[in-house]
């Protein structure tokens, strides 16, 4: 037995020793990746977001609210932290990570939509967490209940890269600058000019399933923001008018937004009936504006925030 | 807790340490601990059916003892039949009830009768087909006097529920496992190292070959209507490799795990894709099931039908293989799969070459041309039956055949993830080379490299581990878990 154990130990020792080093190497290089959500995560962890105004939400925030336009209008540095395909649970994780590594913002423009209060099963775009998640308690807490990672992925070097060889390959390519890696976002924002895809042909009777835990978390988040003197405004960005009728319990969503708006005295900028919504040419699909539409919308949003409500720097001055 | 998961690795490390270092001095305690570990392992999958496992173990243990004690042949037989009926009854209820009800309804509706019978919402308990066959073999062997009834219930319950082979076999016979459980086990370092090596090879087959094949074949079988025949053909080929790599990979990991505990369980695969005819294939594929059915079904049937000559043999083979098919699941596709394999035997029976065994050329790296043709031919025969095995219905299988035999067979295959297909083919070549070189061993790596310098050998193991790390496919269930 002794000989066997020595042999096994000798075999696995190099693996154990090397695993942490290799993990650091892979993670360090993956952090250079600009695809998907990686540049946002890198900016969050490097403290490079550091903005007075941040935009939260799903892809409807990410591809629609241009931070440059808002920044120019408000004269406040702005960053778009919209996260593709995720509900408030992941938006909240971003919020927490953002506060942990960056200075506190003055204003959060929170884009709410049909995804905000819903729960999703799988951890979409999970690669954004790979370089940062080892021993990270926040990421563990907010991602462990999805289908995606298991316990060992959070606590064991290299475990999360097992079965995900393409990320390891990418890390090696990035280490020698051989990866196709052009930056595709500007301060978290990326717009595309695509033809309208008729995704409205999907389920005709889509029903939002409100997750009570997420609704509760949203309430807690708003309370925390009030406690930390961070102003929040709600925004409902334009949706193509034909697509709006397919969500059967849309009213419930708006009731909930108004409820929170009232409870925490948060202004609600609702663009769901804006003239943009009636022009197909401004959309990629029913839910997402294209580049032209997003520029138009961002200008409106920036102007409305600037003129219809007290400017952000006034708030800052008061404090 | 899949064998290829870190949770199983952690579970097994704890079991290994406690088994050898805490309970190692007392066989009884070792067995109790193994039994508890096995039940824990099973509960981790689905605790609801643990009581069923314990119940069937308890009943068969009691009946086995009654069979052993009784001096009256009739009484012995009654207890045996009672045990078989209970075991098969449980299996029938959980696995086949809905299938038969639905088939009856469908049959009667063809004659204009609409039966008002409802199927039930029954969940199939994991491993039930495997442990039921283990139990039945025990009862028959006790009845035949081949083994004495287990005198210790712990040993018997452990024989039924031994965790490495509980979920997907191999289907051990009591005569093989229980005597080992009664003896004091001494750890053999070389056996332990070999067990680890077998686990490594099983892990490679499962994660690198089977799981990558699955990621290619699942979309092919799901969307075959829209794919060219060339893509479907590659999909069928890869599914054949997948099912072998998946099941033999599982078996290697199960056998390796048992060896680390100082126990030997039945070999399940003997390089079946190098078989030169269908009879040889079935002597090498899922050996524990085929040998079980040969002993308890085919042999008694062929004796009963011996007066009918070759026709009797054909009939016995067809019944035997139809049962092999239906063992896999409650679906006509499995029945047809088994029956077709039975039909494949007919030319061998007629030509009188059923039991001819010709070993592959030893010492030569390449097979002779005739060997190669026979191997390839057998592989193709098997491959085409896996279309039926994989399909949800017989209609779907025939639709797949229709799509396969079309002009688009000459077009370029289309895959979503072409790079995964390329990788997978490279790994399959690697698998076949290693299996070919190691075909005389118990498993591919068992003899390979023993003469190599340890540094070269270890480098090979590290390289295999790196392949597993880098190229393991996304987590897929073992195919045989559903049976």
The pLDDT mean of chain B sits at 91
CATH topology of the domain at 53-127 and 182-318 in chain A: Rossmann fold
Shape category of chain B = globular
**Terminal-residue CA separation of chain A:** 70 Å
Going by helix content, strand content and strand pairing, the class of chain A is: alpha/beta
Query: What structural category arises from helix and sheet content of chain B?
Result: mainly alpha
Order of helices and strands of chain B: HHHHHHHHHHHHHHHHHH
Mean pLDDT of chain A: 90
General shape of chain A: elongated
What does this structure look like?
The complex is a heterodimer of chains A (319) and B (483). Chain A has 319 residues and is of the alpha/beta class. Chain A has a domain at 53-127 and 182-318: 3-Layer(aba) Sandwich (Rossmann fold), CATH 3.40.50. In chain A, 45% of the residues lie in helices and 7% in strands. Chain A has a five-stranded parallel β-sheet, with helices on both faces. The longest helix of chain A has 29 residues, at 2-30. Chain A is elongated. The relative contact order of chain A is 0.16. The model of chain A is unreliable at 310-319 (pLDDT under 50). With 483 residues, chain B is mainly α. Chain B folds into two domains: 39-186; 190-276 and 358-482, no CATH class. In chain B, 70% of the residues lie in helices and 0% in strands. Chain B has helices spanning 6-22, 27-46, 50-69, 73-110, 128-144, 153-161, 163-166, 174-182, 189-222, 229-260, 278-284, 287-304, 309-328, 332-351, 369-390, 394-404, 418-437, 454-471. In chain B, helix 6 (153-161) crosses helix 8 (174-182). The longest helix of chain B has 38 residues, at 73-110. Chain B is globular. The mean pLDDT of chain B is 91. The interface between A and B is medium-sized, with 20 and 23 residues.
